[in-house]
Amino acid sequence: MPRTSAFDLGRFARLPSLDALRAKLPPMPALGDLPPLAGGGVAPGLRDMLARLSELKPGSPLCAMGPRGPAAAEAPLPAGARFTEFAHRGAAGTLGYRLYVPSRTAGQPMPLVVMLHGCTQSPEDFAAGTRMNEVAEERGILVAYPRQTQGANAQKCWNWFDAAGQLRDRGEPALIAGLTRDVMRDFAVDPARVYVAGLSAGGAAAAILAQCYPDLYAAAGVHSGLAAGAARDMPGAFAAMRGGGRAAAGRAVPVIVFHGDADRTVAPVNGEQVVAQARGGAALTADTVGGRSEGGLAFTRKVECDAAGRPMAEHWMLHGAGHAWSGGSAAGSYTEPRGPDASREMLRFFLEHRLGAA
Questions:
Q1: Segments of 12-81 assigned E as strands
Q2: What CATH number should be reported for the domain whose range is 82-350?
Q3: What GO molecular function annotations does the UniProt record carry, in alphabetical order (predicted)?
Q4: How far apart (Å, rounded) are the C-alpha atoms in residues 278 and 207?
Q5: CA-to-CA distance for 229 and 208, rounded, in angstroms?
Q6: Where are the domains of the chain?
Q7: Hey, is 17 helix, strand or coil?
Q8: Do 54 and 79 touch, CB atoms closer than 8 A?
Q9: Based on CB atoms within 10 Å of each CB, which residue in 32, 114, 189, 191 is the most buried?
């Protein structure tokens, strides 16, 4: 079963205090008046969040809401591998990150994957849950995990819904792009094979980075996230999570998407919107197949190719899965171990794409 919290939705957006939230939101609707999800019904997470908010007293910190499991223990590293803390400092501020350096580098330029954790998570937790370092070790790939702080967001979410944080060389996109360039400067990185991926709020941030920096990231992976520009404020964020946003058409960017069709935190239509945005208006040919993972989870995989037959978009719909990383480890939070291995599939897709390739 996926390891998740019963209060996912309240952790997905920036919720510093009840007073601050009330100042930004319109009057709270009665529970019976909530807008329905596409297909009927109201997301249980949203209903639960509003019920809890109505019970809180003014000034109560929302960051304390909901239980949190113990921090994931770090797995032993292979001999010669490193998982080290660094910090990027630039005009937009400072951002810490952990960097996985595989044991076999051989001095050759390596691919780099930037992994953006979800709300309440940390680089350590995200690395444990996704097992991305294990796959990167096999393939000789660097993996950077930026660390969101509670100072920037009480739930440690990336502020994907902040209009000021959706622009090139501004705010969080500038910080993450800056640390990406730091790694490229300080390590042997192949500049044509740099990628970005994330879960939930991190997936939404990855979609933003792919649109803002198509000259830096060759492809993106979005797991249980939203399209760039799906929301530009907090009320818009809740609306987008509930039934999809109004993201504008984007640049053509290779993208691989995973989303559970039982996700009650971010509606599955958002995964479809990520793919639609990444097409950039291009005419692609689609091929759809169904299957079942070794863990028994059914999925539908849709691959869209350009006129030359190159895969430009992959969309994995995970049947019966919720808001959790497919094929992940129970050692981390928000994982669905039964599903197909999203980390391995993302790296396979990424390595099919290079910047500047014809």
A1: none
A2: 3.40.50.1820
A3: hydrolase activity
A4: 9
A5: 7
A6: 9-64, 82-350
A7: coil
A8: no
A9: 114
